[in-house]
Every structure is written in C-alpha cells, then in structure tokens.
C-alpha cells in the first residue's frame, strides 16, 4: 500500500530503524536509509530492501548531529525521489551518568541527535508533504518521553522535547493530510540497549544480570523486551489511511511500563 511513496528513516542501519525500513519496503516504498556502520553490511541491507520492495533504496551516510549534513541528506532524497512522504526520526544515542559528572559534550551531542535533528528533518520535509496533501511524520520517542530514570538526563530531556515537537507539528499540519506521532517503546533488545549495560553496571555497581533484571526489565511488567518487529508494525499502521485520525499522539509499546 506504499507503492510510489518515499520513506526516509534516520538511524536505519541497525536496530529499530532497520526494522522500520524492512516493514515499509515490504509494502513497496522507496527507502532512504541513514546511519553509520560497515559499508559492505549497509550495501547488503540496501540491496535486500530493493529486493523486498521492488522499488529503490538509497543510503545517506550523513551525520545528523550537523545541520548542514541534514540539509544535504534531505536535498539528496529530493533529488532521488522528489521528496519524502514518510519521515521517521529514529536516530538516537544514550549516555548514562550522574548529572554532576555528565560530560558537556555528550549533552550537546545527544540533544543534537535525539532532538534537534528531528526539528531539521521535519522543517525540510513538511513543504513537500503539504504540496502532496499527504504525509506521515513518526518519531521513535521512548517511554522516557513520558517518564524519567536517573542518570539519563540528556536522553530524557531530548525525548520529552521530541514529544512536544510532535504535538506542535501535528497541530500545524493537521489540515494537510499529514499526521505526526510518537512511538514510545520501553526496552527493545537492540545494540543501543546492549551497549549501555557496562555503563549502568559502573554507575549502579551491579553485575550484568542485575542490570538486565533489576534495572532494564524492572519497570517492564511483561518482563519481556519489546521486539523491533513490534515497533515497526506500529509505524506501518500509522502510515495507513485508517490511521489518518491519529495525530499528535504518543503510542506506547512498553510492556506496561508507563501504566504504573
Ligand atoms: P541503535 O544503536 O541500534 O541504532 C541507532 C542508529 O542511529 C544506528 O543506525 C546508528 O548508526 C544511527 N546513528 C547514530 N549516530 C548517528 C548520527 N550522528 N547521525 C546519523 N545516524 C546516527 O539503536 P536503537 O535501539 O535501534 O534506537 C533507535 C531509536 O529508538 C533511538 O532514538 C532510541 O532512543 C529509541 N529507543 C530505543 C529503545 C531501545 O530499548 N532500544 C527504547 C526506546 C527508544
């Protein structure tokens, strides 16, 4: 149902972003993938997306902490496909530290990537969506867009900001057939989660097993990690015409975390 549409997904060389790319490609969309990683592995994913969609997939290697690179990426998507119909702001990183020790450069980087990049891609994508009178803006926010955890000040701040940006944009584009929504996962098993285990072990003086059971899944009543496929299925639903009435919403997929 996405034949002829173009989806740009930031941070889609791995984890949740790659799952979004596969889900949207399976419905026939052109795909722009973005993010870092091994060039050969990314090329393999890119060709697999084309096989899945029967449409085109291009790779944008741009660093989304830099405004001029975001502008270059959006220009490249416009050159290749005319513009972006579905924008998924998904690139994000985490850093775990007590606030008094939080490195200033890390704060700036996380706000730039997890929040500012979504402002820039959105402001650049909206004119085309308005001209087509159709569009979907989807953010991978987080349960941390609704609630906090200690030692994640930059991340929680950025994700709460993303939720506010989404609501604001939803109101601005509401009469143009464009929706803007957050998807807010709890803990999803991806490299981002795996990589924060050592820092959390240090910050809380815990073993790996204690971090997994007592920190990561402590607040998730299902005691299960969310899967990337579950998150991607929600994005696909939000792209459907049946979801045209869902805008400015924050869709939780968190195993009951924020119900508590
Ligand atoms: P991941 O680390 O697997 O993927 C992150 C992606 O962002 C990668 O493709 C990486 O190359 C890309 N990236 C990193 N820095 C970049 C930069 N400067 N410019 C462009 N791309 C960059 O992580 P993930 O778990 O798939 O997370 C994706 C999103 O989901 C993030 O926004 C994260 O905050 C959010 N999220 C994750 C979880 C979880 O439990 N994994 C939970 C809630 C929200």
Automatic annotation (TrEMBL):
GO terms for MF: 3-hydroxybutyrate dehydrogenase activity
One GO biological process term: monocarboxylic acid metabolic process
SUPFAM superfamilies attached to this UniProt entry: NAD(P)-binding Rossmann-fold domains (SSF51735)
InterPro entries attached to this UniProt entry: 3-OHbutyrate_DH, NAD(P)-bd_dom_sf, Sc_DH/Rdtase_CS, SDR, SDR_fam
Domain of life: Bacteria
Sequence similarity: Belongs to the short-chain dehydrogenases/reductases (SDR) family.
Name this protein carries in UniProt: 3-hydroxybutyrate dehydrogenase
Source organism: Rhizorhabdus dicambivorans
């Amino acid at each position: 149902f996405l034949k002829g549409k173009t989806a740009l997904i930031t941070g889609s060389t791995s984890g949740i972003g790659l799952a979004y790319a596969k889900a949207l490609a399976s419905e026939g969309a052109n795909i722009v993938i973005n993010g870092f990683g091994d060039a050969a592995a990314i090329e393999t994913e890119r060709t697999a997306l084309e096989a899945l969609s029967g449409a085109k997939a291009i790779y944008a290697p741009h660093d989304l902490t830099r405004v001029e690179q975001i502008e270059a990426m959006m220009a490249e998507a416009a050159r290749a496909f005319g513009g972006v119909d579905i924008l998924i702001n998904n690139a994000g990183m985490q850093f775990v530290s007590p606030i008094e020790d939080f490195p200033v450069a890390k704060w700036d980087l996380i706000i730039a990537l997890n929040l500012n990049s979504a402002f820039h891609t959105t402001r650049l994508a909206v004119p085309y969506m308005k001209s087509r009178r159709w569009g979907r803006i989807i953010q991978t926010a987080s349960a941390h867009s609704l609630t906090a955890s200690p030692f994640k000040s930059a991340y929680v701040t950025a994700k709460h900001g993303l939720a506010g940006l989404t609501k604001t944009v939803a109101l601005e584009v509401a009469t143009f057939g464009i929706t803007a929504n957050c998807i807010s996962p709890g803990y999803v098993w991806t490299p981002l989660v795996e990589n924060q285990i050592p820092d959390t072990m240090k910050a809380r003086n815990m073993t790996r097993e204690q971090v997994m059971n007592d920190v990561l899944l402590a607040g998730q009543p299902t005691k299960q990690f969310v899967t990337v496929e579950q998150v991607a299925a929600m994005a696909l639903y939000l792209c459907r015409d049946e979801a045209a009435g869902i805008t400015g919403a924050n869709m939780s997929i968190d195993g009951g975390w924020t119900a508590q």
